[in-house]
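User: Fold this; tokens only.

Assistant: Input:
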Amino acid sequence: MSVPLYQAKAEMFRTLGHPVRIRVLELLQAGARPVRDLLAEIDVEPSSLSQQLAVLRRAGVVVSFRSGGLVMYALSTPAVADLLAAGRAILREVLADRDGLLEELKARANPA
């Protein structure tokens, strides 16, 4: 029996719910990168990065392959980058709303 779509989406969002995983995905938007380059950009222990990459790989969000002696990681589909862009757009709108509310509250607190 297959999993309902809403449940599969919830699992995907749970997979994305870790700052290191999001940072990895952001870095991979520029193209495939070896683990050593990811480590240079992300302040985590190698074992922690390895765990997070394994979670992303099991979820099908990233793929790994060997190039020479390096293990490379890449986004599994351009749709992952689209999802990150949608997240940025949502945050921009939510934060803009909050800034507008904050300005409105300040104006009401200090009537001219």
